[in-house]
Write a structure and sequence with these properties.
Elements (H helix, E strand, L loop, with lengths): L4 E5 L5 H11 L4 E7 L6 H9 L4 E5 L5 H15 L6 E4 L15 H21 L1 H5 L5 E5 L15 H20 L4 E6 L16 H14 L8 E3 L8
Family: Belongs to the short-chain dehydrogenases/reductases (SDR) family.
GO molecular function: oxidoreductase activity
Protein name: C-factor
Length: about 240
């Protein structure tokens, strides 16, 4: 009998989130819950749902809104039909582009930290009971090499870099607190997406294939650490 794995991914309306959903749902072993802020406008996601009805569930989620998260938990439990959640992929995020440590916009700074740090914190906490019922119990927080002090990138993207560094530390704390879970962060690389732009060197199809392969085989040895999409560990 084919094993069944359950996945929930945030930020699936486009880019890396949409690519992960596309790859996962093509395997009959996977049941996928794809979330985004506005499902009605996520046309590509709707097409996938129509094609893979029964194995792909699209649910509204605003990762910084506690009420939205609570509704999403209830709808996810209903969609999974009593199954636990094997994989939670905190992918949703925003970027303040090329701001610096002395030129940032205060509102942009706060909204970026809310989406990229508070969001994964709230979502992970809310879905903990569903994860505890799962077989794999994996949380992946999508980070960036910009959050690594070891990478001397320079002044730009200060807000984005700071929030990803904070997310890395959150991941470490989650792993310390819950050694029964597998919790780690990953860098997808600079990919050709709406956020990454056309100058990015990496194909999201290739990087997400590598990233999902890593996640699927991750063990407790990988927990609390920071990994590149191709399985290399990142110093941070």
């Amino acid at each position: 009998m084919l094993a069944t794995y359950t996945w929930l991914i945030t930020g699936c309306n486009r880019g890396l989130g949409l690519e992960m959903v596309t790859q996962l749902v093509r395997s009959p072993a996977n049941i996928v819950v794809a979330t985004c802020r506005n499902p009605d406008s996520a046309l590509a996601l709707q097409e996938l749902r129509n094609e893979f009805s029964g194995r792909l569930h699209v649910i509204q989620l605003e990762v910084t809104d506690s009420e939205s998260i609570e509704r999403c938990v209830l709808e996810t439990e209903k969609a999974l039909g009593g199954r636990g959640l094997d994989y939670l992929l905190n992918n949703a995020g925003v970027s303040e582009q090329r701001d610096t440590a002395f030129t940032f916009d205060s509102k942009g700074f706060m909204s970026t930290f809310h989406a990229n740090v508070l969001g994964p914190s709230l979502v992970s906490r809310a879905f903990l009971p569903v994860l505890e019922k799962g077989n794999r119990k994996v949380i992946m927080n999508m980070s960036s090499q910009l959050g690594s002090k070891a990478w001397k990138f320079g002044a730009p993207y200060a807000t984005y870099a700071a929030c990803k560094s904070a997310l890395n530390m959150l991941t470490t704390k989650q792993a310390f607190e819950r050694p029964d879970l597998i919790v780690f962060c990953m860098c997808p690389g600079w990919c050709k997406t709406d956020m990454g732009g056309d100058d990015a060197p990496l194909d999201p199809k290739v990087t997400m294939e590598g990233l999902l392969k890593f996640i699927s085989s991750a063990t407790s040895e990988h927990s609390g650490r920071y990994w590149r999409w191709n399985g290399e560990e990142i110093e941070w």
